[in-house]
């Protein structure tokens, strides 16, 4: 890593928390840097996991983008999903790791934004419904089994999470289960880690969680499987991806978007530095993607009133 080639903003000592305040002129000035200085390429990501892990992962990504482009790169940590979309909209960040829904929301606000890469697992992603064994709910094999959640408490992840809210709620509605059929209002834990913790602690009987995060949590021994059971794995859908602003090349030079995309495609599990990034992403490779791959997510978001 070369710390002179990128600025890593984050860590427990002090996160740079993006906000939706300030006018667009100030935002544009900040993105371009002070007069006479080179612009800083800002990257960010939805905060779907523990901040310590995210800071480590995106510090490595910032280094890789800097190496691929020769630019100064800044990872800007945020506290919630909405802040990523807003920062992308106003130009505080130029490249973002989005979920399916946040990517669709960002593209609806930034004409010409392009999905450029996804992990090998993202074209066929899955959510899990998990439950405390004390709930008495038994695992089931199809969508209709979700009716067993009636009368039980449930928490989603972030309210704009694709795998932690959007698609789980979609499948619930496909089964004829409305949010009003649950015990009380659903919770919104804010992240997949927090959803697992909320179910494991008994704060909620049921949770909707990203399959990848669940598997990583189980592998790390951070959840007691004697207390928590997987009820059902959803059908697949397209989810996470890197989204680039349409002015990336104009701001940082022709070919910048292509260079970043190629760097992602070329990450090699045999290379120790690349392997560290891929492992933290829970993937073996990145592959090309395009906006049209998220048409289903856009349609579901409109049906659920999550896309203005």
What would the keywords be for this entry?
308 residues, alpha/beta, seven-stranded mixed sheet, five-stranded mixed sheet, 11 helices, 12 strands, 17% strand
- What structural category do the secondary elements indicate? alpha/beta
Strand order of the largest sheet: 1-3-2-4-11-5-12
Let me know the number of strands.
Answer: 12
Low-confidence stretches: 1-32
Helix content range of the residues, please?
A: 25-40%
Shape: globular
Question: How many helices does DSSP assign?
Answer: 11
Summarize model confidence as the mean pLDDT: 90
The biggest beta sheet reads: 7 strands, mixed
Report Rg: 20 Å
The secondary-structure element order is: EHEHEHEHEEEHEHEHEEHHHEH
* Percent strand: 15-25%
Task: State the distance separating the first and last CA atoms.
Answer: 41 Å
What does this structure look like?
With 308 residues, the chain is of the alpha/beta class. Helices cover 37% and strands 17% of the residues. It has 11 helices and 12 strands. The chain has a 7-stranded mixed beta sheet, with helices on both faces. Strands 8-7-9-6-10 form a 5-stranded mixed beta sheet. β7, α5 and β8 form a beta-alpha-beta unit. α2 crosses α10. The longest helix has 19 residues. The N terminus is likely disordered.
């Amino acid at each position: 890593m070369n710390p002179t080639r990128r600025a890593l903003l984050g860590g427990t000592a002090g996160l740079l928390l993006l906000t939706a305040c300030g006018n667009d002129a100030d935002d544009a000035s900040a993105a371009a840097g002070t007069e006479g200085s080179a612009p800083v390429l800002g990257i960010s990501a939805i905060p779907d996991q523990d901040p310590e892990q995210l800071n480590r992962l995106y510090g490595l990504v910032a280094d890789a983008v800097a190496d691929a482009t020769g630019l100064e790169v800044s990872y800007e940590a945020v506290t919630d999903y909405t802040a990523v979309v807003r920062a992308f909209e106003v130009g505080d960040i130029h490249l973002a790791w989005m979920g399916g829904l946040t990517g669709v929301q960002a593209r609806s606000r930034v004409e010409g934004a392009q999905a450029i890469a996804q992990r090998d697992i993202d074209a066929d992603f899955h959510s899990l419904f998990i439950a405390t064994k004390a709930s008495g709910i038994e695992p089931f094999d199809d969508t209709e089994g979700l009716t067993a959640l009636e009368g039980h408490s449930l928490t989603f992840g972030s309210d704009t999470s694709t795998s932690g809210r959007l698609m789980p709620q979609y499948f619930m509605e496909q089964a004829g289960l409305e949010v009003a059929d649950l015990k009380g209002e659903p919770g919104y834990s804010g992240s997949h880690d927090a959803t697992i913790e909320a179910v494991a602690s008994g704060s909620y009987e049921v949770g909707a969680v990203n399959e990848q995060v669940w598997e990583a949590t189980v592998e790390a021994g951070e959840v007691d499987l004697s207390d928590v059971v997987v009820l059902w794995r959803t059908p697949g859908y397209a989810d996470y991806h890197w989204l680039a602003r349409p002015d990336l090349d104009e701001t940082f030079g022709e070919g910048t978007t292509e260079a970043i995309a190629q760097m992602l495609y070329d990450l090699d599990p045999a290379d120790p530095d690349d392997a560290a990034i891929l492992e933290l992403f829970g993937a073996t490779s990145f592959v090309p993607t395009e906006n049209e791959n998220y048409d289903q997510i856009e349609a579901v978001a409109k049906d659920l009133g999550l896309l203005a």
